[in-house]
Design brief:
The structure is a single chain. This protein is mainly alpha-helical. Helix content is about 70%, strand content about 5%. Strands 1-2 form a two-stranded antiparallel sheet. The longest helix has 25 residues. The relative contact order is 0.18.
Length: about 130
C-alpha cells in the first residue's frame, strides 16, 4: 500500500547510490549467472522507483509493496503499459528465482536486457530532474 509521507531526499539519495553500485556490478557480471543478473536488474529498478516515491513523499509498505512500487510508475508519462508488464514479469521471475530456486532462461535475459536498461535510464532521468 502506498502511504503519504514527507519527501525524504537523503534517504532517496542513499537508495540511488545502492542502485548505482548494483549497476556497476552488472557491467562486470558474466551472462552465465542469469538468475543473479535478473535479481540485480529487478533490485536496481525497484530501488530507483522507491527513491522516486520517496522524493514525492510516498512509500510502499505491506505485502504487495513491490508490486505497487512498479505500478506507481504508470503515473509517469515515460512509462507505458508494456514496460510496466515487463517489470511485473521481472518481479515474478525474481521472486521465483530467489524464493523457489527456479532458473531464469538465458534467452529471457537476452531478450529483456535492452528494455530493462531503457527503464533504468528513464528512472535515472526522472530522479535527476527531481534532485535538481
Amino acid at each position: 500500500m502506498l502511504h503519504k509521507d514527507f519527501p525524504d531526499k537523503e534517504r532517496a539519495k542513499s537508495i540511488i547510490t545502492m542502485a548505482f553500485d548494483r549497476e556497476k556490478f552488472l557491467i562486470s557480471a558474466k551472462i552465465d549467472y542469469q538468475n543473479i543478473i535478473i535479481e540485480n536488474y529487478y533490485e536496481i529498478i525497484k530501488e530507483l522507483a522507491s527513491a522516486l516515491l520517496l522524493l514525492n513523499g510516498l512509500k510502499a509498505i505491506g505485502e504487495n509493496a513491490h508490486k505497487e512500487i512498479i505500478d506507481s510508475l504508470r503515473k509517469y508519462a515515460d512509462f507505458n503499459d508494456y514496460q510496466i508488464s515487463i517489470l511485473q514479469d521481472l518481479r515474478i521471475k525474481r521472486n521465483k528465482s530467489l524464493y523457489e530456486g527456479e532458473q531464469v532462461d538465458l534467452e529471457y535475459l537476452k531478450g529483456k536486457k535492452e528494455i530493462l536498461n531503457l527503464v533504468i535510464d528513464k528512472l535515472k532521468n526522472l530522479l535527476a530532474d527531481k534532485l535538481k
